[in-house]
Design a protein that fits this description.
Layout (H helix, E strand, L loop, with lengths): L9 E2 L2 E2 L12 E4 L8 E2 H5 L8 H10 L3 H5 L8 E2 L8 H15 L3 E5 L7 H14 L4 E5 L20
Parallel strand pairs: 3-6, 6-7
Antiparallel strand pairs: 1-2, 4-5
């Protein structure tokens, strides 16, 4: 996050004066275009933003992104070990695991950058609908090139020829 040239940025009435996502103590969660996963279990990767989350919270998040059956079919389930970068998962599974991690973290503001990139249409629709459900009551910014993902947005910002 950049420091504004003029004006202020506030969250819940509190002025956010410092640049950088880390400065806000987990109040803003951000899903990068490239999903970062780490060597360790699926659960370890899900718990990065909220280490105190219980297994029920993890199960709800993986179900929201349609990974519940795939994970249940793994011999160790949520404790299945991933390699560096999420080795052992497909690109779409890695993407959805990143979304699930942000859902587990439950920040005040969720920022999804191309959340459904690389997902098929049916899976993308399920994920977007469940993001909407799981983040109710929170501020959500969903950056997308797919208009269908934005149809239920409260506010739509259209950027043409932007960088």
């Amino acid at each position: 996050m950049l420091t504004p040239d003029s004006g202020t940025v506030a969250l819940g009435g509190e002025r956010l004066a410092r640049p950088g996502m880390a400065a806000y103590g987990g109040r803003i969660g951000y899903l990068l275009q490239r999903t970062e996963l780490f060597r360790g279990s699926i659960a370890d990767n899900l718990l990065l933003g909220r280490p105190d989350a219980n297994d029920d919270k993890l199960q709800i998040a993986v179900a929201a992104v349609g990974l519940d059956l795939a994970i249940a079919n793994l011999s160790k389930g949520l404790h299945h070990q991933l390699g560096d970068g999420g080795t052992g998962l497909s690109g779409g599974e890695r993407r959805r695991l990143g979304i699930a991690r942000l859902l587990v973290a439950s920040p005040d503001v969720d920022v999804f950058d191309e959340a459904t990139e690389g997902l098929d249409g049916a899976t993308a629709a399920l994920v977007v609908e469940n993001i909407r459900f799981e983040t109710r009551g929170r501020a959500v910014l969903l950056a997308t090139h797919h208009r269908v993902e934005a149809v239920n947005a409260d506010t739509l910002l259209w950027i043409e020829k932007g960088n």
